[in-house]
What does this fold into?
Amino acid sequence: MLTVFTSPSRYTQGKGATTALGHEMTTLGLEEPVLIIAGKTVIGLLARTWQQSLDEAGLRHAVHRFGGECSLTEIERVKAAARELRARTIVGAGGGKVLDTARAAAADLGLPVVNCPTVASSDAPCSALSVIYTEEGIFQQYRFYRKNPDLVLVDTEVIAQAPPRLLVAGMGDALATWFEAKTCVEGYVKNMRGGGSTRSAAALAELCYKTLLEDGPAALQATRTKVVTPALERLVEANTLLSGLGFESSGLAAAHAIHNGLTVAPGTHPYFHGEKVAFGLLVQLVMEGSPRATVEQVLDFSTEVGLPLTLAEIGLPELAGDLLGQVARRATAPGETIHNEPFEVTPDMVADAILAADALGRDWKKRNLEHQ
Ligand SMILES: [Zn+2]
It folds into this structure.
């Protein structure tokens, strides 16, 4: 097996980074006209800065207002707008759905794409894949693109304005990165790009975990005050770059598959991807029989930043046998990353681990309350 490491061509981050968008694009040789896809709020927040930055760089641009869903219809609308403009570069600015739409349209048209995430809620912005859900919000499939974004530009001043819960969700997604990567590396299985893991990717995944433990609580504090601090800068890098490179180039295992299984239960739909992944990680740790000290470190961190530890906290106060079975079967569907675990995984085993993780979380919360 060959080892494969994949990443965006350039990653730029910092307070007010949007003012450098035009310059960063010309540095990479990205050409005009530029079509920017964004939702109403982000347009209101950034349109003037785009104008100034792209004008200064000599890049003509137009803004397409995002329709709200990463659906086939919306992707076609973006493609039509890009064709009309004769766009040579597509920029997506916003949350996951906007970025996914921009990437899908750019991939179909063979154009370079720039991702400007305005929230640090998941590990998706740096990757060359999107998660596709059904209209009902159930995980459907991973969609793979030929290459990673040409540029990922993260303006931490914008991230600091977003609701703190989104940053916490991003920490949940990033919390699983090292554990899933480690399972893949130790098992010599393929990463998300079909190659073996490099030592580089594994080291980045581990740094992701260390950064969360070190900077997570202080970064959360910063977003509550809507300010940019060094801790927030480091944490945003962990959620976006380290987690993104770690999962894509080292691989995913049980935690993300459990997440995909949980999406079968409608009760979980109001909860963010990273919140469900955080619970999925507890299930993975139970299934792998992880040492108590490891589990407690994860429980401790999750408690401190407010990540869910129980089924009730992801919208499933009761998970009856039938639905539990459906979740477990979806999590173990053929091709799921849960089969990267070093032992044979059955739906029955997953159902047990889900209930055990929930009991563990409930017990932990109860003991924490008693100590207060
Ligand atoms: Zn994820």
In short: Residues 122-123, 173, 256, 273, 277 surround zinc ion (CB under 6 Å). The longest strand covers residues 89-94. The radius of gyration is 20 Å.
